[in-house]
Amino acid sequence: MLNATFGGVHHCGRCVQVFSKSLCRSSLLFNWSFRHRSNGRKAKRSAQTEPDVVKSAAEFSATSKSEPVSIGSCYPCDLASIQTVPFVLDNADEKKGSNDQETGAKFRFPSVTKILERTRSAESRELFTNWRNNMIEKYGQEKFDSLVSDRLKIGTALHEALTMQYLTLQTPVDEVQLSESAVPYWNSLKPLLPCIEELVSKEAWVNHSVLHYKGRIDALLKYKNRVVLLELKTSDRVKASLDSLYDTPLQLVAYAGALNSMPDYPKITDAIIIVCYTSSEATVFELNIRYLEYYWKQWLQRLSNYWADLGKMHR
């Protein structure tokens, strides 16, 4: 981390302050200029660079229109160090109960979804584009958009049925209220419900205190007598392997790593991905610490690529 005084303005080592390319030790930060107030209030971007920064950020936004985009945020200062960050931070508990002055900056961290979207391989992008074009050709743009919207609604309804109706309100399995289109997916999930014992947290925003990214978890719950992080999915095709889930394991391990950097959550060493279908029993993938460590290395590589590419675009 940098820790110096540039032009009489102190660099705290947690928020980046770079006023010239020559003073910056990381190519990631070239040509970024903004100020950070020591009282912890929201960082103010330099008035001279703000128009270009806002324009660039808007051009980058490809995954979520509702997510605030800002280049003038806290960033990892050293790309090489990203891939050395452990899955479980040993000193995370030391921050418990502390007065975090960087709360505002956390809302400007890039999301896991955005990072994965922008670091997809060319092959993956081509497959997605071809699938999308084929669907539009088959159904038309309006029908395709409707299908995507309906699938999102089904996923939301299924998540609510599990975490709110079943686990929180303790509604009997056969009395859970769902739309007709979501019922088959609930039926797919039913055989696994005896293994799901208690809800710990749901739909919580998490952020990594060192790697500076954020995301929103599906749920943290007790599964087979241990606390696990859940990612709940729906699919028209049966998923037989983790490879068939594309970036879902990376998304899950990114959230788990963020939780492991936050002192108010239990350390996560187990996670599950449940995929529900319309006409067969749900598939559950159980990821123990070895799987999570394996995917964590892949996630760190994608994260490093994201920052490197972003830095190149701002040179």
From TrEMBL:
Its localization reads: Mitochondrion
Q: What is its biological role?
A: Metal-dependent single-stranded DNA (ssDNA) exonuclease involved in mitochondrial genome maintenance.
Name the record gives this protein: Mitochondrial genome maintenance exonuclease 1
Keyword check for Aminoacyl-tRNA synthetase: no
Query: What does UniProt give as GO cellular component?
Result: mitochondrion
Q: Spell out the family assignment given in the record's similarity comment.
A: Belongs to the MGME1 family.
Main localisation, per the record?
A: mitochondrion
User: In which organism is this protein found?
Assistant: Trichuris muris
Keyword Hydrolase listed? The answer is yes
Query: What keywords does the record list, in alphabetical order?
Result: Exonuclease, Hydrolase, Mitochondrion, Nuclease
Q: Which PANTHER family match?
A: MITOCHONDRIAL GENOME MAINTENANCE EXONUCLEASE 1
Q: What is its EC number?
A: 3.1.-.-
HAMAP family noted in UniProt: MGME1 (MF_03030)
Q: Which GO terms describe its molecular function?
A: single-stranded DNA exodeoxyribonuclease activity
Residues annotated as the enzyme's active site: 218, 231, 233
GO BP terms = mitochondrial DNA repair; mitochondrial DNA replication
Q: Which domain of life is it from?
A: Eukaryota
